[in-house]
């Protein structure tokens, strides 16, 4: 299980929230008797210097390819101008079509106000599905102030029961497709209907 943090501030509240979601999901999958290990974290701010530099293209490609190897990818961003960050967009603009086809992605967004809660569904989910990811349940919207106080952990645990059955189902379906089509081969469809 990996995480991608799209905050222009290093080691931010978004970073802490992404790690919290990744760890809770890892524990929930282990409890559901599914193999899961909390793994790699890519902080997009660490790649900012390479995003618009042709010499950095290989670095960006390597990081994106490593994220595509995860079964589950938590993608977290602050809510800026009612959407995900420009840094996250700039990084994912480097992604080839279908990069996240083998991945189940979990969108997480932090906002300053409850008014921003819809951005995770209206903005970040479509970006992830455009890249081929399957997105289980509802995305998670958290308040920035709750990360400072630790209250976000309660919000994560309230959100979890609504997402874990769909997440487990998607992972099981992807494993069955992987067995059917062989390791390293892409199934013939990425539509959600294929997993139902």
TrEMBL record:
SUPFAM superfamilies per the UniProt record, alphabetical: Flavoproteins
Alphabetical keyword list: Flavoprotein, FMN, Oxidoreductase
Keyword match RNA-binding: no
Keyword flag Electron transport: no
Domain NADPH-dependent FMN reductase-like: start-end pairs: 2-143
InterPro entries, per database record: Flavoprotein-like_sf, FMN_Rdtase-like_dom, NAD(P)H-dep_FMN_reductase
Molecular-function annotations in GO: oxidoreductase activity
PANTHER family, sorted: FMN REDUCTASE (NADPH)
UniProt name for this protein: FMN reductase
Organism this protein belongs to: Streptoalloteichus hindustanus
Lineage of the organism: Bacteria, Bacillati, Actinomycetota, Actinomycetes, Pseudonocardiales
């Amino acid at each position: 299980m990996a995480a991608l943090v799209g905050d222009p501030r290093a080691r931010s509240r978004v970073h802490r929230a992404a790690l919290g979601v990744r760890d809770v999901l890892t524990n929930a999958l282990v409890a559901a008797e599914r193999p899961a290990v909390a793994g790699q974290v890519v902080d997009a701010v660490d790649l900012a210097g390479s995003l618009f530099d042709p010499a950095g293209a290989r670095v960006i490609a390597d990081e994106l390819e490593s994220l595509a190897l995860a079964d589950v990818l938590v993608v977290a961003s602050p809510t800026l101008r009612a959407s995900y960050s420009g840094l996250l967009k700039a990084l994912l603009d480097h992604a080839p079509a279908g990069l996240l086809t083998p991945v189940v992605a979990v969108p997480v967004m932090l906002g300053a106000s409850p008014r921003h809660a819809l951005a995770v569904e209206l903005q970040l989910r479509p970006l992830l599905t455009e890249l081929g990811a399957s997105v289980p349940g509802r995305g998670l919207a958290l308040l920035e102030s709750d990360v400072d106080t630790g209250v976000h952990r309660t919000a994560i645990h309230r959100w979890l029961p609504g997402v874990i059955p769909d997440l487990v189902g998607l992972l099981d379906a992807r494993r069955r497709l992987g067995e059917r089509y062989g390791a390293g081969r892409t199934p013939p469809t990425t539509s959600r209907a294929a997993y139902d």
